[in-house]
Amino acid sequence: MIRFSHVVKEYPRTGLALNDVTFRVNKGEFAFLTGPSGAGKSTILRLVIVEETPTAGEVRVSGSLTSGLPRAEIPRLRRRIGVVFQDFRLLEDRTAEENVAFALEVTGAPREGIPARVSRLLTQVGLASKGTSYPKELSGGEQQRVAIARALVNDPVLLVADEPTGNLDDRATRGVFQLLRDINAAGTAVLMATHNLDLVKRNTYRVIEVNRGQLVFDSAEGDGGAATVTSSTPT
Amino acid sequence: MIRFSHVVKEYPRTGLALNDVTFRVNKGEFAFLTGPSGAGKSTILRLVIVEETPTAGEVRVSGSLTSGLPRAEIPRLRRRIGVVFQDFRLLEDRTAEENVAFALEVTGAPREGIPARVSRLLTQVGLASKGTSYPKELSGGEQQRVAIARALVNDPVLLVADEPTGNLDDRATRGVFQLLRDINAAGTAVLMATHNLDLVKRNTYRVIEVNRGQLVFDSAEGDGGAATVTSSTPT
Amino acid sequence: MRLTLREVMLGMRRSPLLSTLSVVTIAFSLFAFGLFGLLVLNVDRALRGVEEHVEIVAFLADGTLPESISAAMGDISAFPEVARVDQVSPEQALARARAELPEFQDVFDASFLPPSLEIRLKEGHRDPGTVKDVTQRIQTYPFVDDVRYGEDWVKKLYDIRNIAGAAGIALGLLFAAVAVIIIGTTIRMTVLARSREISIMRLVGATDGFVRLPFLIDGFLKGLVGGLLALLLTWGANWLISHNLIQTFFFDPGIAFLGVLGGGIIGLLGSALSVGRHLRRV
Amino acid sequence: MRLTLREVMLGMRRSPLLSTLSVVTIAFSLFAFGLFGLLVLNVDRALRGVEEHVEIVAFLADGTLPESISAAMGDISAFPEVARVDQVSPEQALARARAELPEFQDVFDASFLPPSLEIRLKEGHRDPGTVKDVTQRIQTYPFVDDVRYGEDWVKKLYDIRNIAGAAGIALGLLFAAVAVIIIGTTIRMTVLARSREISIMRLVGATDGFVRLPFLIDGFLKGLVGGLLALLLTWGANWLISHNLIQTFFFDPGIAFLGVLGGGIIGLLGSALSVGRHLRRV
Ligand SMILES: Nc1ncnc2c1ncn2[C@@H]1O[C@H](COP(=O)(O)OP(=O)(O)OP(=O)(O)O)[C@@H](O)[C@H]1O
Ligand SMILES: Nc1ncnc2c1ncn2[C@@H]1O[C@H](COP(=O)(O)OP(=O)(O)OP(=O)(O)O)[C@@H](O)[C@H]1O
Ligand SMILES: [Mg+2]
Ligand SMILES: [Mg+2]
């Protein structure tokens, strides 16, 4: 699903954000991405959704090399990925419902099914009553949950979530995490960057840790590297 | 310092966000503000910095009633309050340094002292090397720390922080919290909204909890209401 | 398509200020264009009125027989360039002189003036070249004493017409360029104001076409509305001038329609250029 | 103050596109204004040239004594409105007629024309009222047969001048209004584009004045630069017309300076209006 080989990312003014990062996440896998602030977690996720391309090395997502990807191919790839951004990135001039629906509309989904799907997802994140509010009328945690609903709405094959529980209380965090587990159980691969070590410790999922741009720990490597070394068929 | 009496806040489209909230925070006090997502924490903080005014009831900050405050008085009040916003609110077109310096410049502080103070604070939040980066060149946690540095830079008499550690790892959280404790020890009152229950439990500070717009628990009330009932001199 | 139209409506509803300003700017640009167009149109009409007076005068020798004159008039009428030939008697010449020069107010004896033929040319044959050509042919008649056609005057007339035309086209092009720049600017600002939204749309999988189409339609519609407004303003200005100062002519309905359509096309062009360039960078 | 200037510089450095566009828009608006100004200026000059030819002609009775004529000429010269008096003999009148009307080409006997006096008026006394007044006074001389002063012509001349003036002022005001609107728009857009920044500034304690001042200075400077550009463009257009079409006059340096300053003031006004209104809402 995701394959980083010797990825280096250098930003114009601030220098190296990632240095020789190699790992892969298989189809249907669930992986935490941890590490201190500024380690490079968001940068890894941005490389996955082709918001950035690597300075050196290769990033492959669902088989396609992101570096030379034609501009027209990028939307097609993104439609199969659900993304929760660290800063939410909701469309300011659309209501919560419209924000969630938008992710379906761009894929050309049939219009009849959209409202039902949207309201189901908003209910699942606990925002059934806030559907017609604009982002600036929502609390921080509510905005975050709209972003989560948008990422899940079109049944992505890969979900990429950047600190999706940073503005949520414990109960809401458990609810959202249950959603991610459910969607993973249904076959979606999940890569989730988080600082919530409780969450990481309480679960047995794979943990990838970065620090200062380098991959410093990968629980899959620890238990024999099964996921990253054994299988060499493209994901 | 802060005094809410029977405060009601109704937003135009979404209805009641606060309902009959009464509490006070004294000079030099440290108080956590907790509660689930959407409970009204940010709304309380917005009322304190006069970003909003109450629909009914009174909010007094450092002695002034915020409701009828003349437009020209508001900046004067705000300059004595340090604010960390949940969504950071950094000036996009200024570097980290310039963002922090800005809070000093608006107060008319002598220019000579500014650079030294700014770089001391950036060092304290662990961003000494990121001073010349623009917000979009910073990671989520780095932006949050810039916001914290800006709130502290002009030695406010009151610090209001909305989820200031939501994007920080444990180590950075401890560092930032130590900073808040230090500034509180130096006499600044602190009101901090947070979901980090670990932090709340590990400390003995006062806890104010809201839920669905109502004040449901106040540890100061629990231990005899010393802070809120005994003293009736205006803060 | 329904989705796209909804996007357009959404955009207009959300930034009514920016939309209104775009339309007003387009309208004013086209209005300036329209005013100059009216100026050129009316100068041209006025010049055509003057041009009708281009004529050749052939003075006849004393004692020419009336039959020769009639024959010559027939011949000359048959020239393909000639519209009309009139005979002017000495009395008619004096009457005209008395009307034009005050010195002749008290003169009544016309015998000192020669008779003459006045030749008017057809429209399209009044340029200095043709006039000179016809003059030379008339000069071949033996009883024609002298032919005058006001070389200087004809030339000056054409100069004025050409200068007015060139100035009109130059100013018109200038204003069209200004209009395109201003419209492009307005739309660029709309795009800039929405650049965060656009980048989010792309990040959740919208294609360039999906993002661009609402802007194009929006630009076209605003251009049309701006064009209509400009037409109204121009018509109003024309009405005011016509009723208070001098009689003027207005554009044909066809030209007016083309002008409004031109507004739409300018809006579309401005959108296409500025959205296209911006999308590459988002 | 140094802080404010730094803010202004920062603003320009950060949105070079928006800044350039503002300046260009202001420049084009003022350029349009300048073109109309030039048109009015030159039409006015041209009319003043024509006006110099306003003259009164007094036809003298046959057999008037030369002494009477000389005396009358002295008298009339002494009228405060009169610039010059000339005597025109029948021969001179015929020569003029031959130049103006082709029919007189072959006429050499001037005896049928009356002698006359030509009276030119001083500048500022050529309006129809004064002309009529002087005419009546001249009519009182017994040997003056008839006085003509081309009533129609003088009136028409004044009409044209008034119409051109009114049209020029109307169009000029229109363009000034358009300029203010466009500039206000541009600045409004700058403010809108920066509304998030402005609200953040206020939230960390900036006063309205602190936020507003950089915008005002910015608007004034952009207006000045726009004005200078417009002056350059207008000068260029004038140069092109002067060298290729017809001789034209340019504005005095004082007026040009006022125009540039006017640009600055328009920029300042646009800023003040739109920032003020917007700040109230942030
Ligand atoms: N657009 C950018 N331009 C320049 N530098 C950048 C940019 N984005 C990130 N950086 C830098 O790259 C480094 C890694 O950033 P990244 O956002 O990946 O960190 P992170 O692990 O997500 O941190 P956090 O937990 O605080 O969100 C940081 O030092 C940051 O300053
Ligand atoms: N500007 C606004 N307009 C309308 N409704 C609003 C606005 N801001 C907040 N609300 C609503 O008021 C309620 C309280 O919001 P508030 O931001 O105070 O919650 P919070 O306690 O800070 O939540 P979180 O922990 O998620 O940040 C929410 O239901 C929210 O939808
Ligand atoms: Mg991050
Ligand atoms: Mg909040």
What is the N-to-C order of secondary-structure elements of chain A (H for helix, E for strand)? EEEHEEHEHHHEHEHEEHH
Poorly predicted segments of chain A? 223-235
Largest interface: C-D, 46 and 46 residues
Rg of chain A, rounded, reads 17 Å
Shape of chain C: elongated
Mean pLDDT of chain A: 90
Number of helices of chain A: 9
Oligomer kind:
heterotetramer
Strand content of chain C: 5-15%
Order of strands across the main sheet of chain C:
2-3-1-4
What does this 3D model show about the protein?
The complex is a heterotetramer, with two copies of chain A (235 residues) and two copies of chain C (282 residues). Chain A has 235 residues and is α/β, with parallel strands linked by helices. Chain A has nine helices and ten strands. In chain A, the strands form two sheets. Chain A has a six-stranded mixed sheet with strand order 6-7-8-3-9-10, with helices on both faces. In chain A, α3 packs across α4, α3 (96-105) runs parallel beside α5 and α4 packs across α5 (140-152). Chain A is globular, with a radius of gyration of 17 Å. Chain C has two domains: 2-49 and 158-281, no CATH class; 55-148, Alpha-Beta Plaits, CATH 3.30.70.3040. Chain C has nine helices and four strands; from the N terminus they run ααβαβαβαβαααα. In chain C, strands 2-3-1-4 form a four-stranded antiparallel sheet. The interface between C and D is large, with 46 and 46 residues. The complex binds adenosine-5'-triphosphate (2 copies) and magnesium ion (2 copies). One adenosine-5'-triphosphate (ATP) sits between chains A (11, 13-14, 17, 35, 37-43, 86) and B (130, 133, 136-142, 167). One adenosine-5'-triphosphate sits between chains A (11, 13-14, 17, 35, 37-43, 86) and B (130, 133, 136-142, 167).
